[in-house]
């Protein structure tokens, strides 16, 4: 069983200035060497309270084409709902280790739900400086409460409340992206499975690290889902790749960070681009993030949308069941 937790490695290092070798990245990846210093990437910031809906839609479409990442401000999710989500998640990671292990992911199950440490198989055997908790928050019939912490007692209520507010944001984003492809407003969401699309919550826990220039939290990747809606805590750490260089993405309090994932890139036949991103960690502070991955059901087939391909625009991607896509991605097998 996978019991090495980065949280334990970090707490043993309180007075030590070195880290185990498996966390030290190759020089081609080390953030101290590969981050463009002194510039924060100004990814598009979209104001959801703008009464000009056409403009907001246009901004979403442009950002999805040009950046694959943007931030939404003045959205409908109350800041208290975000704070509650953050407070209960933070409290979970502060529980005694034995209690967290009760939620450990089942090593014999193909599901990624639960408390764990390593997700992607890394080719060079390196490890990310991060622990995580995964559980579904939608649809109700797919929720397994075994992976929802019982402590703190308000964990469930806070997650349900945040999850409830998320639907409006998802619908607005997918509607705009659908129209931007020349489809009807509801067609992209329906193509992904409509209201059966899974909302998978992840909490990333990045403890302080004595050598932040040498390690990565989550190494460079694109998200495999449709779209990701993420809130971080206040600690800088998200980076995006632009023109083959890594930049810090500006932290904006209360903003929602949106990532275009692989399945939207595929469904749009390449019009929208999944964003390459990674995370760094801090020497002094614990960073957290709460991405929610909006993804098709495991047996649902996604390929380029049939209305977007023809003789002049042949499909650029294969059609695949989402679970097969995910298996290849997690095991680094070519799609
Ligand atoms: O922590 C973050 O800001 C991003 C995490 C991430 O990219 C992921 O979990 O897929
Ligand atoms: Fe990601």
TrEMBL record:
Which cofactors? L-ascorbate
UniProt KW keywords: Dioxygenase, Flavonoid biosynthesis, Iron, Metal-binding, Oxidoreductase, Vitamin C
Give a Pfam family name: DIOX_N
Q: What Gene Ontology molecular function terms does this protein carry?
A: dioxygenase activity; L-ascorbic acid binding; metal ion binding
Protein's GO biological process:
flavonoid biosynthetic process; pigment biosynthetic process
Q: Which residues form the Fe2OG dioxygenase domain?
A: 197-296
Q: Where is the signal peptide?
A: none
Q: PROSITE patterns, alphabetically?
A: FE2OG_OXY
| Family classification | Belongs to the iron/ascorbate-dependent oxidoreductase family.
What is the protein's given name?
Fe2OG dioxygenase domain-containing protein
The uppermost taxa in this organism's lineage are: Eukaryota, Viridiplantae, Streptophyta, Embryophyta, Tracheophyta
């Amino acid at each position: 069983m996978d019991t090495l937790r980065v949280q334990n490695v970090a707490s043993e290092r309180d007075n030590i200035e070195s880290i185990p070798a498996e966390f030290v990245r190759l020089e081609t990846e080390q953030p101290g060497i590969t981050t463009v210093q002194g510039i924060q990437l100004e990814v598009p910031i979209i104001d959801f309270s703008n009464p000009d809906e056409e403009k907001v839609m246009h901004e979403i479409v442009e950002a999805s084409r040009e950046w694959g990442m943007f931030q939404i401000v003045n959205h409908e999710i109350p800041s208290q709902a975000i704070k509650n989500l953050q407070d209960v998640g933070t409290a979970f990671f502060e529980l005694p280790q034995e209690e967290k292990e009760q939620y450990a992911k089942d090593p014999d199950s193909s599901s990624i739900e639960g408390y764990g440490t390593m997700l992607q198989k890394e080719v060079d055997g390196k490890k990310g400086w991060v622990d995580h908790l995964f559980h579904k928050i939608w649809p109700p019939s797919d929720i397994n409460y075994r992976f929802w912490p019982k402590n703190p007692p308000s964990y469930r209520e806070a997650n349900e409340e945040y999850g409830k507010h998320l639907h409006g944001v998802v619908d607005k984003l997918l509607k705009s992206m659908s129209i931007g492809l020349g489809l009807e407003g509801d067609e992209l969401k329906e193509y992904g499975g409509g209201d059966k699309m899974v909302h998978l919550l992840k909490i990333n826990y990045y403890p302080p690290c004595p050598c932040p220039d040498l390690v990565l939290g989550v190494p460079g990747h694109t998200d495999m889902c449709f779209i990701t809606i993420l809130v971080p805590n206040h600690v800088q750490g998200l980076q995006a790749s632009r023109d083959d260089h890594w930049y810090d993405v500006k932290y904006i309090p209360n903003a929602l960070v949106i990532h275009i994932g692989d399945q939207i890139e595929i469904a749009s036949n390449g019009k929208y681009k999944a964003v390459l991103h990674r995370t760094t960690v801090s020497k002094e502070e614990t960073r957290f993030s709460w991405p929610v991955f909006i993804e098709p059901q495991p047996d649902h087939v996604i390929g380029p949308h049939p209305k977007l391909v023809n003789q002049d625009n042949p499909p650029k991607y294969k059609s695949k069941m989402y679970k097969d896509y995910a298996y290849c991605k997690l095991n680094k097998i070519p799609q």
